[in-house]
Amino acid sequence: MNKALFIISLQHELAMAIGNELDLKTMLKVFLKVCFNRLNLTSAHIYTYTNDLGLSIKITTQQSAPYQHLISLPKTKHGELWTKNEVLMLFTEELNNRQRPHEFQHENKQYFFGFIIPQHGLLVFETQFVIEAPIQKALIPILEKLATSCYTSIVHDSLVQEVYSRQVAEERIAFQAQHDGLTGLLNRQAFECFVV
After folding, report:
1. Which residues are registered as beta bridge partners of 47?
2. Of 3.30.870.10, 2.40.420.20, 3.30.460.10, 3.30.450.40, which CATH number belongs to 2-153?
């Protein structure tokens, strides 16, 4: 009974941590903090699939894309960035190749548990204890919700960038319409508007 209550409360708390922020990195950091505390993790990591510009993307089911480290809690292990940790890098590569949950016990008695964030990336937990199968299974619907929120954040970021680009273009066009291209001074039409 206690295990069932733990799983229900874990799912609820993780679900509540998802989607409260529009910024992808901020939202995932909140999610990782809850995972870190509730699952007694040593570390937690998220890798996202990226395009050629290094921006997080959503991939189709058959598509493959490079992945990139986005966030880790804590940021370092023994003063070294996680992006330089060879064991984590190899585990993440294996997880990406398998495209299904994966676990590994390191020689230092630490466990790595890897999960797929559908169409968006990889989630890796490091812990001193085994994450039991019912808890791993309970994470699957949470990761699907996390994928939806990742997509929402990616779309939001692209819309913000499009609006910003449009504003910059409009300002450039307005400046060009009122200024001489060679000197940068007000042109005759703009000068006449000020005089009249």
Report:
1. 69, 122
2. 3.30.450.40
How far out from the chain centre does Cα 187 lie?
48
pTM of this structure = 0.81
Residue 117's nearest CA partner among 189, 28, 51 is: 28
**Cα 127 to Cα 135: distance, rounded to the nearest angstrom:** 14
Q: Which two tokens stand for residue 39?
A: 């699952």
Q: Which of 47, 45, 38 is nearest to 131 (CA)?
A: 38
Per-residue pLDDT of the chain (196 residues; tens, 9 = 90+): 588 888 898 888 888 888 778 888 889 999 999 999 999 999 999 999 888 887 888 877 767 788 889 899 898 888 888 888 888 999 999 999 888 899 988 878 889 999 999 989 999 999 999 999 999 999 999 999 998 888 888 888 888 889 999 999 999 998 888 888 888 888 888 777 777 6
CA distance 87 to 154: 29
Q: Where do the domains of the chain lie?
A: 2-153, 159-195
Sign of CA pseudo-dihedral 143, 147, 152, 158:
positive
